[in-house]
Specification:
Layout lengths: L11 H10 L6 H37 L7 H36 L14 H4 L1 H6 L3 E2 L2 E2 L2 H20 L1 H6 L5 H41 L4 H10 L11
Helix pairs in contact: 2-3, 2-8, 6-8
Amino acid sequence: MSESDRTLPPSARRLAQVREEGSAPRSAALTGGAVLFAAAALLAFAAPQTLNACAEGLERALRARPLRSLSIDSAAALVRESVLTFILASGWFLAGIWSAALAVAWIQVGPLWAPKAVQPSWSRLAAPHGVGGLPSRNGLASVGWNAVAAGGAFGAAAIWLIWNQNALLAAPEGPVARVASAALSQISQAWLALAGAVFLLSLGEAGLRRIRFERSLWMTPEQQRDERDSRPRPTRGRASR
């Protein structure tokens, strides 16, 4: 049956059946694009501040107590403080990624909302599954997305190092934390731009998927006629004598 034969909009019965089944044009690529963009945004705005906070705390601790005078307990407390700082930052990072994955996965249900459509299924809502859906097209893996992502990340890092090699070589005594924070900031900004482009592409793919899905719900005149004929007709009870 060709698409040109579907000339009639879906009937109320067909829409009710679709809602009951929980069918919706979900796009794993859109979920993955949102996760990638959320991760890039969190890194761009939070990672340099987190690195600076850890470095400043370590610097204050070492200035207050020189390395030679550190005891086992004080050294363990110093390491524990740094680890807790990174764990807290990682917790917010993971929470932001999963929130983006859940929000985008649920938004895609759109007007066809149904309880079955938003069940917490790993294949629907998991952030790693969404990222894994980025390089897929029609169910077949492709290296195109991976090449773009890896090439963009390594290219941004290489460009930053080339542009700032004189400053890095001219100040070997400079604080390593400041240099690392600046490098992380530049790389994360480049990753944010790349993730934004990927998200826009996945958004377009999701739009086309929704259009195809809604078009697939249209019916032919024969389908609507068969649906009318298959409806149970009300029976009239016989009058008792």
